[in-house]
Amino acid sequence: MFTTCVAYRRTAAVQERLDATRTRIVAAAHDLVARHGYAGCSIALVAEAAEVATGSVYRHFPDKGALFAEVFRTSTQREVDAVAAAAAEPGSVAARLSRAVETFAHRALASPRLAYALIAEPVDPGVEAERLTYRAAWTDLFAGLVADGLASGELPPQDPAVSAAAAVGAMAQALVVPLHHGGAEPHVVPELTAFITRSLGASS
Amino acid sequence: MFTTCVAYRRTAAVQERLDATRTRIVAAAHDLVARHGYAGCSIALVAEAAEVATGSVYRHFPDKGALFAEVFRTSTQREVDAVAAAAAEPGSVAARLSRAVETFAHRALASPRLAYALIAEPVDPGVEAERLTYRAAWTDLFAGLVADGLASGELPPQDPAVSAAAAVGAMAQALVVPLHHGGAEPHVVPELTAFITRSLGASS
DNA sequence: GCAAGTAGTGAACACTGGTTCATTCCTTGA
DNA sequence: TCAAGGAATGAACCAGTGTTCACTACTTGC
User: Would an 8 Å CB–CB cutoff place A173 in contact with chain B?
Assistant: First the structure.
C-alpha cells in the first residue's frame, strides 16, 4: 500500500550544482548592473549571461525584484563594510572621517557605473526598499562618527542623524551624480573631504 | 479651377480654447505628479483629469516625455526662482546662504511629494535630461554664492562647483529623501542650515 | 534497466501603457 | 445652409518584458 520506493533524492552533488548555478545567475546580474545599470538589464539578458534558460532563473528567485534585491544587497554591503573598516581604524574623529570619505570616493571613482546604480539609479520598488535599508546603513555609519565626535568634544553640538544624512547626500551628489554623465574627476576627492570635514565642524 | 473657398481658419477664439486645453492638460499633469508622483501617472489619467480624450493629449505634445518635461521644467523653475530671489537679497554671504537654504527647505516641507518628484523620484530618460539641466541650475545658484564669498574673503578657498554640488546633495538628502517615507520634520531646517553654513566655511 | 521524481527548457502568454488613426463633431466663410 | 477642413475622440494597436508551464532531460535508488 505504501510504496517505499523513493526514487529521487536531491544529492549533495546536485545541491552543489544548484548552488553554483544560483551563484552564476547572481554574478551575471551583478556584472550586467555594474556595466550597464539596471536599465535594460532584463531577465533574458541575465539568463543568457549565466548560460541558463529564462525559466531557470525562476527556479532560484520568485521574481525579478528578488534577484536584483539580492544583487543590490550584496554589492552595497561590500561598500558599507569597506567604508566602515576605514572609519574604524583608530585616530581622531577628523582623521577617521577623512578616511571614510576618501574610501567611499575612491571606490566610487573606481566603479562609477556600479556606484551610480547602487546610489542613484532609478530602480523598481522592490529594489528601492532595499536601497532604503542601505541608505540607513550609510547614515548610521556617519552618525556613529558624529556621535563619537560629540562625545569626545571634537565636534560642535549637532543632530547626528541630520548631519549624517546631509553628509551622505553631499558625497553622493558630488561624486556619483556627476559621474553618471561624463568621466571621473579625481580632483574632487580632497575638495569633498574638506567639505565634509568642515560641515561637521571638524575642520580645525 | 482654383476654388478660393478657404472655409476654415483657426480663429482667435479657437486658439484661445486650444491654449486653455493645453494649459488644463499641463495643470492636470502637474497636479497628479504633485499628489502621486510620476509613478502611476499615465497619459490616460492625465487625460481623464483634464477632461479630454487620451488622443487629444497628443495634439499638444509629441509624446509623454515632452509633456512631463514641461511639467518638470515649469515646476522646478518656480522653485529655483524662489530660492534665487531669497539669495539675491542684500546681506552677508552667510546670511544669503541661510536664507537660500531656509527657502528651499520650507518650500520642500510644504510640498513634500512634489519636492520628491522634482528632485529624487525615478523618471524616464526624457525627464531625467531635464532634471540634469535643473540640477545645474541649482548648483550654479549655490556656486554663485560661494564665488561671492570667495571674492569677499568671507569663505575659505574651495572649488565652488564641488562645494555647490555637495551642498545641493546635502539639502536634497536631508530633506527630500526622508520626506519620501514618513512625515515632515521641520526641526531639520535649522540643523541643515547650520550644516551648510559650516560646510562652506561661513560658520563664524 | 526502470519507475519516480526533480531540474531545465524556451516558446507562448499576459499585462501594461504609450501611441495611432479612422471616424465623428465643430467651426468657418460664403 | 453648405462645403471644406481642422479638432476631438477612444477603441484598437503595438512593443517590450516579466512570468508561466507543458514538455524534455536528467538523476536517483532499487
Answer: yes
Rounded to 10°, the helix B64-88/B93-110 angle is 140
B88 to B77, B80, B147, B190, B197: CA distances (angstroms): 16, 12, 14, 20, 17
Give the residue among B194, B179, B182, B158 at the shortest CA–CA distance from A188. B158
* Residues in chain A closer than 8 A to B122 (CB atoms): 122-123, 128
- The CA distance from A141 to B175, in Å, is 19
DSSP B90: S
Cα B126 to chain centroid, rounded: 15
Q: Is the CB of A9 under 7 A from strand D?
A: yes
Residues B88 and B149 sit within 8 Å (Cβ to Cβ): no
What class, spelled out in words, does domain B12-61 have in CATH?
mainly alpha
Rounded CA-CA distance A80/A137 in Å is 7
Grid coordinates of A195: 567639505
Q: Which residue has the cell 546633495?
A: B169
Task: Please give the Cα distance from B82 to B76 (Å, whole number).
Answer: 10
Cross-chain residue pair A195–B123, CB shorter than 8 Å: no
Task: Say if A133 is an interface residue toward chain B (CB within 8 Å).
Answer: no
DSSP per residue, B53-84: -HHHHTTT-SSHHHHHHHHHHHHHHHHHHHHH
Highest mean pLDDT among A149-163, A183-197, B169-183: A149-163
Handedness of CA A155, A157, A159, A162 (dihedral sign): negative
The CATH superfamily holding the domain B66-199 is Tetracycline Repressor, domain 2 (1.10.357.10)
* Architecture of the domain spanning A10-61: Orthogonal Bundle (1.10)
Q: What is the location of CATH 1.10.357.10 in chain A?
A: 66-199
Torsion A153-A157-A162-A165 (CA) sign:
negative
pLDDT of B110-162, one tens digit each? 999 899 899 888 788 778 888 888 889 999 999 999 999 999 999 999 999 99
Range B59-72 average pLDDT: 95
Q: Which residues contact A69 (CB under 8 A, 6 or more apart)?
A: A126, A127, A129, A130
Nearest-CA distance A121 → chain B (Å): 8
